[in-house]
Amino acid sequence: MTESRFDMFSNELGARFGKRFASASMVIAQSTLPRSTQELVGLRASQINGCGWCTDLHTKEAAAAGETAVRLNLVAAWRETTVFTEAEQAALALAEEGTRLGDASHGVSDETWAQVRKHYDDDQVAALVCLVAMINAANRLGVIVRQKGGSYQPGMLASLTS
After folding, report:
1. What NCBIfam families has UniProt attached to this entry (predicted)?
2. DSSP 3-state assignment of 32?
3. pTM confidence score
4. Which of these, 114, 126, 145, 162, has the minimum number of CB atoms within 10 Å of its CB?
5. Is residue 8 in some structural domain?
6. pLDDT confidence of 30, banded at 50, 70, 90?
7. How many structural domains comprise the chain?
8. What one-character DSSP code corresponds to residue 79?
Protein backbone atom coordinates (compact mmCIF):
# COMPACT_ATOMS: atom_id res chain seq x y z
CA MET A 1 0.00 0.00 0.00
CA THR A 2 1.43 3.37 -0.95
CA GLU A 3 1.61 6.09 1.65
CA SER A 4 -0.10 9.45 1.36
CA ARG A 5 1.87 11.98 -0.65
CA PHE A 6 1.66 14.64 2.03
CA ASP A 7 0.31 14.91 5.57
CA MET A 8 -1.86 18.00 5.63
CA PHE A 9 -2.56 17.54 9.35
CA SER A 10 1.11 17.73 10.39
CA ASN A 11 1.90 20.74 8.21
CA GLU A 12 1.35 24.09 9.98
CA LEU A 13 -0.47 25.78 7.10
CA GLY A 14 -2.43 22.62 6.29
CA ALA A 15 -3.44 22.22 9.93
CA ARG A 16 -4.56 25.87 10.18
CA PHE A 17 -6.59 25.47 7.00
CA GLY A 18 -8.04 22.18 8.26
CA LYS A 19 -9.17 23.81 11.50
CA ARG A 20 -10.99 26.57 9.63
CA PHE A 21 -12.43 24.10 7.15
CA ALA A 22 -13.73 21.99 10.05
CA SER A 23 -15.20 25.10 11.71
CA ALA A 24 -17.08 25.99 8.52
CA SER A 25 -18.33 22.42 8.33
CA MET A 26 -19.67 22.70 11.89
CA VAL A 27 -22.26 25.20 10.65
CA ILE A 28 -23.66 22.43 8.47
CA ALA A 29 -23.32 19.76 11.17
CA GLN A 30 -25.28 21.92 13.61
CA SER A 31 -28.09 22.64 11.12
CA THR A 32 -31.51 20.99 11.14
CA LEU A 33 -30.52 18.82 8.19
CA PRO A 34 -30.66 15.28 9.63
CA ARG A 35 -27.23 13.90 10.49
CA SER A 36 -27.98 10.68 8.63
CA THR A 37 -28.68 12.70 5.48
CA GLN A 38 -25.47 14.64 5.96
CA GLU A 39 -23.43 11.45 6.25
CA LEU A 40 -25.15 9.77 3.29
CA VAL A 41 -24.52 12.82 1.09
CA GLY A 42 -20.88 12.98 2.20
CA LEU A 43 -20.47 9.28 1.56
CA ARG A 44 -22.01 9.38 -1.92
CA ALA A 45 -19.95 12.33 -3.13
CA SER A 46 -16.81 10.72 -1.70
CA GLN A 47 -17.55 7.47 -3.54
CA ILE A 48 -18.00 9.35 -6.81
CA ASN A 49 -14.77 11.29 -6.32
CA GLY A 50 -12.78 8.23 -5.27
CA CYS A 51 -11.69 9.71 -1.95
CA GLY A 52 -10.87 6.73 0.26
CA TRP A 53 -10.27 8.79 3.38
CA CYS A 54 -13.59 10.66 3.14
CA THR A 55 -15.46 7.47 2.23
CA ASP A 56 -13.95 5.86 5.33
CA LEU A 57 -14.82 8.89 7.48
CA HIS A 58 -18.45 9.17 6.39
CA THR A 59 -19.07 5.43 6.55
CA LYS A 60 -17.75 5.24 10.12
CA GLU A 61 -19.42 8.46 11.32
CA ALA A 62 -22.74 7.29 9.88
CA ALA A 63 -22.40 3.89 11.54
CA ALA A 64 -21.47 5.54 14.85
CA ALA A 65 -24.62 7.67 14.56
CA GLY A 66 -26.74 4.52 14.13
CA GLU A 67 -26.95 4.16 10.36
CA THR A 68 -27.54 0.57 9.28
CA ALA A 69 -25.03 -1.53 7.36
CA VAL A 70 -27.67 -2.25 4.70
CA ARG A 71 -28.22 1.44 3.93
CA LEU A 72 -24.49 2.20 3.99
CA ASN A 73 -23.80 -0.67 1.61
CA LEU A 74 -26.53 0.48 -0.77
CA VAL A 75 -25.63 4.18 -1.02
CA ALA A 76 -23.76 3.68 -4.29
CA ALA A 77 -26.87 2.08 -5.83
CA TRP A 78 -29.50 4.19 -4.03
CA ARG A 79 -31.72 4.55 -7.12
CA GLU A 80 -32.10 0.77 -7.27
CA THR A 81 -33.17 0.30 -3.64
CA THR A 82 -36.18 0.71 -1.37
CA VAL A 83 -34.27 1.72 1.77
CA PHE A 84 -34.03 5.50 1.32
CA THR A 85 -36.83 8.01 1.88
CA GLU A 86 -37.93 10.38 -0.87
CA ALA A 87 -36.18 13.20 0.99
CA GLU A 88 -32.94 11.21 1.17
CA GLN A 89 -33.24 10.34 -2.52
CA ALA A 90 -33.57 14.05 -3.32
CA ALA A 91 -30.46 14.81 -1.24
CA LEU A 92 -28.50 11.98 -2.88
CA ALA A 93 -29.52 13.18 -6.35
CA LEU A 94 -28.36 16.70 -5.45
CA ALA A 95 -25.08 15.26 -4.18
CA GLU A 96 -24.51 13.34 -7.40
CA GLU A 97 -25.48 16.14 -9.76
CA GLY A 98 -23.59 18.73 -7.71
CA THR A 99 -20.52 16.49 -7.72
CA ARG A 100 -20.61 15.55 -11.40
CA LEU A 101 -20.83 19.11 -12.72
CA GLY A 102 -18.34 18.41 -15.49
CA ASP A 103 -20.16 15.25 -16.58
CA ALA A 104 -23.53 16.82 -17.27
CA SER A 105 -24.51 19.81 -19.32
CA HIS A 106 -27.29 20.77 -16.92
CA GLY A 107 -25.48 20.77 -13.58
CA VAL A 108 -28.24 20.25 -11.03
CA SER A 109 -31.46 19.54 -12.91
CA ASP A 110 -34.69 21.43 -12.30
CA GLU A 111 -36.32 18.10 -11.40
CA THR A 112 -33.77 17.39 -8.68
CA TRP A 113 -33.99 20.95 -7.39
CA ALA A 114 -37.79 20.69 -7.20
CA GLN A 115 -37.50 17.46 -5.19
CA VAL A 116 -35.02 19.06 -2.80
CA ARG A 117 -37.34 22.07 -2.32
CA LYS A 118 -40.29 19.73 -1.75
CA HIS A 119 -38.58 17.93 1.14
CA TYR A 120 -36.35 20.53 2.81
CA ASP A 121 -36.90 23.99 4.30
CA ASP A 122 -34.71 26.96 3.40
CA ASP A 123 -32.13 26.32 6.15
CA GLN A 124 -31.87 22.66 5.18
CA VAL A 125 -31.50 23.57 1.50
CA ALA A 126 -28.70 25.97 2.40
CA ALA A 127 -27.06 23.25 4.49
CA LEU A 128 -27.35 20.73 1.63
CA VAL A 129 -25.84 23.10 -0.93
CA CYS A 130 -22.98 24.00 1.43
CA LEU A 131 -22.48 20.32 2.31
CA VAL A 132 -22.14 19.30 -1.34
CA ALA A 133 -19.62 22.12 -1.90
CA MET A 134 -17.63 21.28 1.26
CA ILE A 135 -17.48 17.53 0.68
CA ASN A 136 -16.31 18.05 -2.88
CA ALA A 137 -13.56 20.39 -1.61
CA ALA A 138 -12.58 17.84 1.06
CA ASN A 139 -12.53 15.05 -1.55
CA ARG A 140 -10.22 17.06 -3.75
CA LEU A 141 -7.82 17.66 -0.86
CA GLY A 142 -7.82 13.96 -0.01
CA VAL A 143 -7.39 12.75 -3.58
CA ILE A 144 -4.63 15.24 -4.43
CA VAL A 145 -2.47 14.13 -1.47
CA ARG A 146 -3.67 10.50 -1.75
CA GLN A 147 -4.92 10.41 1.83
CA LYS A 148 -5.68 6.72 2.34
CA GLY A 149 -8.84 5.39 3.94
CA GLY A 150 -8.97 2.81 6.70
CA SER A 151 -7.50 4.55 9.73
CA TYR A 152 -10.30 6.98 10.54
CA GLN A 153 -11.88 6.68 13.98
CA PRO A 154 -15.31 8.26 14.66
CA GLY A 155 -14.94 11.67 16.28
CA MET A 156 -11.34 12.24 15.10
CA LEU A 157 -12.17 15.54 13.43
CA ALA A 158 -13.88 16.97 16.51
CA SER A 159 -10.48 17.97 17.89
CA LEU A 160 -9.94 20.28 14.91
CA THR A 161 -12.78 22.56 15.95
CA SER A 162 -11.83 22.85 19.60
Report:
1. ahpD_dom
2. coil
3. 0.94
4. 162
5. no
6. very high
7. 1
8. G
